[in-house]
Write a structure and sequence with these properties.
Elements: H1 2-22, H2 43-46, H3 61-64, E1 75-84, E2 90-101, E3 105-115, E4 119-120, E5 133-134, E6 137-148, E7 153-165, E8 170-184, E9 190-199, E10 211-221, E11 224-234, E12 245-256, E13 263-264, E14 274-275, E15 284-295, E16 301-310, E17 314-323, E18 336-349, E19 355-366, E20 372-380
Parallel strand pairs: 13-14
Antiparallel strand pairs: 1-2, 1-20, 2-3, 3-6, 4-5, 6-7, 7-8, 8-9, 9-12, 10-11, 12-15, 15-16, 16-17, 17-18, 18-19, 19-20
């Protein structure tokens, strides 16, 4: 197992050296496609700006670091709705579920659908439109598997199917994600995570929209010389690459309210006390997280996040994501200004109160547009 982890870490670090050499290159920026793969559609983790990939747990870790999916105890179901760049009429609906299988394995399915709204159809002959509308649709389907290899090491992988389409043009593709998390400390409060995302072959657009009719002044048709006929021509779309990235993160949980209590470490028993099975079992928790993302086709990003949790009932979080020239309105290449925030209200239920129902909300600040609102509901069984 140590050899496997060492190989995985060495490979990830080697990839990081390569991508950091080309990441943010102005000649490559904007040349990748399928940029919806970079959108976090989930309401809970987006409030931290993605800083928590090292300690992301459950279904939402399918986007950040799939290794965290291994923490699913039994079954988790999540639905999320995002109003993307408010005012743009773009909405994102996401659904997913994870299921514990075997002794330490977890299977997961995640679906993200981005609706671009209604766009007026225009042509050369009718530039004002008034001939109908079309709606861009982007769909990502992820099939994931994660596993606990030991008490400290967790890993996983995701196969994603990508679909982009309008009424007469579409593109299809596949890519892979992989991630590792390492947790240590007396109460498993220190976390390290590495995730490699969106690695796959190039995609291209095909369909009737790539063809057009034109008049040919002269030429050969059916072995006869003719002039002034109409022919159909098909344009070839250039291939485009996927927005691959490598992220490396750290996080630490400060567990408060333990002083004076007879509390045992994880998997241990205190004399007359209780057992901490996860950081959610403590009365107060403050988690700090930092993450670095090396992007192959956009600027590198640095994220910081803080989350406060009161037992299992309330979690409040805030994050900040920075990239080059973000503070300069004339030079920045993103609508996001950096800050993000969110909260979770969670209600335990069941005979042993070991099942939960939660509502999540996050807000990401942007300029222009009126920010990004995400709201989600989840059930842990």
């Amino acid at each position: 197992m140590k050899k496997i982890v060492n190989i995985a870490l060495s490979s990830a670090l080697s990839f990081g050296v390569i991508t950091s050499a080309i990441a943010g290159n102005p000649d490559r920026a904007g040349s990748a496609g399928a940029s919806q793969l970079l959108i976090n559609p989930w309401a809970r983790s987006s409030g931290l700006g993605g800083a928590n990939q090292a300690n992301a747990h459950g279904l939402e870790s399918m986007f950040l670091n799939v290794a965290g999916m291994a923490f699913t105890k039994k079954t988790e179901v999540v639905f999320s709705r995002t109003n993307w760049l408010s005012g743009s009429q773009i909405n994102i609906n996401s659904f997913g579920f994870t299921q514990h299988v075997g002794e330490t394995g977890v299977l997961g399915l995640g679906i993200m659908s981005l609706d671009g709204g209604d766009i007026n159809i225009t042509t050369v002959d009718q530039p004002e439109g008034n001939i109908g509308y079309y709606s861009p649709l982007f769909l990502n389907i992820g099939l994931s598997y994660a596993k606990a290899f030991s008490d400290n090491i967790y890993g996983g992988a995701t196969l994603k199917i990508i679909s982009e389409q309008i009424s007469n043009v579409s593109a299809r593709g596949v890519c892979l994600d992989a991630g590792i998390q390492y947790h240590t400390g007396k109460y498993d409060q220190f976390h390290i995570g590495i995730a490699l995302k969106n690695v796959g072959p190039k995609m291209t657009y095909r369909g009737d929209g790539m063809s057009f009719e034109a008049n040919v002044s002269s030429g050969s048709q059916y072995n006869n010389t003719v002039s002034g006929y109409t022919a159909t021509f098909e344009q070839r779309s250039a291939n485009f690459e996927l927005p691959s990235s490598l992220s490396m993160g750290l996080s630490y949980d400060f567990l408060l309210g333990l002083t004076g209590k007879n509390v045992a470490p994880k998997d241990g028993e205190g004399s007359g006390g209780k057992t901490i099975n996860s950081v959610a079992d403590v009365e107060h928790r403050i988690s700090v997280a930092a993450n670095f993302i090396s992007n192959s086709f956009t600027n590198d990003q640095y994220s910081l996040g803080v989350e406060y949790g009161y037992k299992k009932y309330l979690m409040v979080r805030a994050g900040y994501t920075y990239e080059k020239d973000q503070a300069n309105d004339a030079l920045r290449k993103t609508a996001f200004t950096g800050p993000s925030t969110g909260l979770t209200l969670q209600l335990p239920f069941g005979a042993e109160k070991n099942k939960t129902f939660a509502l999540d909300y996050s807000y990401r600040f942007t300029n222009p547009f009126a920010g990004v609102h995400s709201i989600g509901a989840r059930i842990n069984l």
